[in-house]
TrEMBL record:
EC number: 6.3.5.2
Location of this fragment in the whole protein: 196 to 516 of 516
Associated pathway: Purine metabolism; GMP biosynthesis; GMP from XMP (L-Gln route): step 1/1
Membrane among keywords: no
Gene name for this UniProt entry: guaA
Protein name according to UniProt: GMP synthase [glutamine-hydrolyzing]
UniProt GO molecular function: ATP binding; GMP synthase activity
Superkingdom to which the source organism belongs: Bacteria
GO cellular component terms, A-Z: cytosol
Annotated source species: Pseudonocardia sulfidoxydans NBRC 16205
Keywords on record: ATP-binding, Glutamine amidotransferase, GMP biosynthesis, Ligase, Nucleotide-binding, Purine biosynthesis
Positions with a binding annotation for ATP: 29-35
Subunit (UniProt): Homodimer.
Reaction(s) catalysed (UniProt annotation): XMP + L-glutamine + ATP + H2O = GMP + L-glutamate + AMP + diphosphate + 2 H(+)
Length: 321
């Protein structure tokens, strides 16, 4: 539309004015905000932008491909992926407590991102860091345009101790729905532009108990089925999000064929919400629930029971951890 394309034109002009002939780096999370911010900066400065994507191994099925294949195809952006799954699994070994998990994932993420960014910055003389800050985030944090200091790591040779970046925040005046429109107009695929909220710590906080590779594979398979069926039923837009949670430390007895099983339950957590501050549990149609349940218990070997979370927020949070 006219307004969306004028937002894009103004934004591209402002980015060019700010960055000049400099270089920029942008972290991609797989989410809509960082993707749209990166796409705008790519349009403004082309190959002088490098995108960094940290695969922490806690992503859902297909998410890495959405970034590496679909985002790159749509934008032509230069992408540097860091494969850090083993590092995150090592750091999470033996940990079940939710806040500890979150702290470990956050800490490792910053370390990996900083190391990757420092490498790119040294090679390209990067002076700018792109962030997908939205207008509501600006208001919440009291405004003010800042700089970010990213400490380089001792194992990255030949760098100054600190690299200083100026922040480029092309979404600072926009609301989420405007960001989605801008992304669509820039040609980003619906899988990215229409993506439901997904927490930074990823599936790490949807496994109740220790996070292991096998448990992640089990949850990825169950989550992919739930998303497929919700999409097929045309409900993916109607609900806010539907976390699938693996109760990895719980087992229950089941029967399949002529054998007894002793497997794990998964919880479906479909919620309706305006802003995630409060939420209601979504009354999904029984036939959709039935298809999800039948497919998960047939197709995911470790799972022999599917249960539905019927708790609103408050008192429950949307995520289980
Ligand atoms: P809760 O569980 O607090 O979640 O009701 C509210 C919303 O925030 C998402 N969420 C996160 N998003 N980093 C994020 O970017 C996080 O650490 C995080 N934790 C929760 C959650 O999916 C829901 O949409």
């Amino acid at each position: 539309s006219w307004t969306t394309s004028s937002i894009i034109d103004d934004s591209v002009a402002a980015i060019r004015a700010q960055v000049g002939d400099g270089h920029a780096v942008c972290g991609l999370s797989g989410g809509v905000d960082s993707a749209v911010a990166a796409a705008l900066v790519q349009r403004a400065i082309g190959d002088r932008l490098t995108c960094v994507f940290v695969d922490h191994g806690l992503l859902r099925s297909g998410e890495r491909e959405q970034v590496e294949r679909d985002f790159v195809a749509a934008t032509g952006a230069k992408l540097h992926t860091v494969d850090a799954a083993d590092r995150f699994l090592d750091a999470l070994a033996g940990v079940s407590e939710p806040e500890t998990k979150r702290k470990i994932i956050g800490r490792e993420f910053i370390r990996v991102f900083e190391a990757a960014t420092s490498e790119v910055a040294a090679a390209e003389h990067v002076g700018f860091l792109v962030q997908g800050t939205l207008y509501p985030d600006v208001v919440e944090s009291g405004g003010g345009k800042g700089t970010a200091t990213i400490k380089s790591h001792h194992n990255v040779g030949g760098l100054p101790d600190d690299i200083e970046f100026a922040l480029v925040e092309p979404l600072r005046t926009l609301f989420k729905d405007e960001v989605r429109k801008v992304g669509a107009e820039l040609g980003l695929p619906e899988t990215i532009v229409g993506r439901q909220p997904f927490p930074g710590p990823g599936l790490g906080i949807r496994i109740i108990g220790e996070v292991t590779f096998d448990r992640l594979e089990t949850l990825r398979a169950a989550d992919a089925i739930a998303r497929e069926e919700l999409t097929a039923a045309g409900l993916d837009k109607a609900i806010w999000q539907c976390p699938v949670v693996l109760l990895a430390d719980v087992r229950s007895v089941g029967v399949q064929g002529d054998g007894r099983t002793y497997g794990h339950p998964v919880v479906l957590r479909p919620v309706s919400s305006e802003d995630a501050m409060t939420a209601d549990w979504t009354r999904l149609p029984y036939d959709v629930l039935e298809r999800i349940s039948t497919r998960i218990t047939n197709e995911v070997a470790e799972v022999n029971r599917v249960v539905l979370d019927v708790t609103s927020k408050p008192p429950g949070t949307i995520e289980w951890e």
